[in-house]
């Protein structure tokens, strides 16, 4: 469900939102698959502090069973997307244009709306990592008992019913 949340934003869509006075704004930089870390490293190394406050990918926890045991894995929440924080959109766009390594990826940059940013900040926290939520299903109704999805049960689109024994 959360993957579809930003996955539905079209690359060519022009997004216009009012900016927050003096605050940082989140942007999504679309990139090629499997190259998120390279783009992230390039942004951090090549963009100035004036144009870039922070660069990151959002991650989440996932349980997988292999070798007879359950293992907690950390995965990228939105593949092919790098998040950039900036106070100066013009400086960010100018530096991205000048930065050949990033522009060659045919990446597009869009601004995230204030409500969407607040929602993602609430889910992922300062660590920019979505921890696993736990809950129960009773008579077809989902109830989250712990984790960041508590109180957001109506937004849940898919439930992983794996039951780790440990």
What is the rounded distance between the termini? 27 Å
Low-confidence stretches: 1-21
Helix content: 25-40%
Principal-axis shape: elongated
Mean pLDDT: 81
| DSSP helical segment count | 5
What's the Cα radius of gyration? 18 Å
H/E series: HEHEEEEHHEHEEE
Number of strands: 9
Provide the structure class. alpha+beta
* Content of β-strand: 25-35%
User: Main beta sheet, described?
Assistant: 4 strands, antiparallel
Main sheet strand line-up: 2-5-1-6
Could you walk me through the main structural features you see in this protein, from its secondary elements to its overall organization?
With 166 residues, the protein is α+β, with helices and mostly antiparallel strands. Helix content is 25%, strand content 28%. The protein has 5 helices and 9 strands. It has helices spanning 2-7, 36-46, 89-98, 100-103, 114-124; strands at 25-30, 54-56, 59-66, 69-76, 81-86, 109-111, 129-130, 134-138, 141-146. A 4-stranded antiparallel beta sheet has the order 2-5-1-6, covered by helices on one side. Strands 4-3-7 form a 3-stranded mixed beta sheet, with no helix packed on it. A two-stranded antiparallel sheet has the order 8-9. A hairpin with a 2-residue loop joins strand 3 and strand 4. The radius of gyration is 18 Å and the shape is elongated. The model is unreliable at 1-21 (pLDDT under 50).
């Amino acid at each position: 469900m959360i993957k579809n949340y930003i996955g539905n934003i079209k690359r060519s869509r022009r997004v216009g939102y009012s900016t927050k006075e003096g605050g940082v704004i989140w942007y999504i930089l679309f990139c090629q698959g499997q190259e998120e870390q390279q783009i992230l490293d390039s942004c951090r190394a090549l963009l100035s502090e004036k144009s870039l406050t922070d660069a990151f990918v959002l991650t989440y926890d996932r349980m997988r069973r292999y070798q007879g045991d359950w293992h907690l894995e950390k995965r990228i929440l939105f593949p092919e997307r790098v998040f950039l924080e900036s106070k100066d959109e013009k400086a960010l766009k100018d530096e991205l244009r000048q930065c050949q390594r990033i522009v060659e990826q045919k990446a597009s940059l869009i601004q995230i709306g204030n409500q969407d940013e607040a929602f993602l900040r609430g889910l992922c926290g300062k660590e920019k990592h979505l921890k696993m939520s736990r809950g129960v299903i009773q008579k077809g109704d989902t109830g989250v008992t712990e984790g960041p999805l508590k109180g957001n049960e109506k937004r849940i689109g898919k439930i992983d019913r794996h039951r780790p024994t440990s």
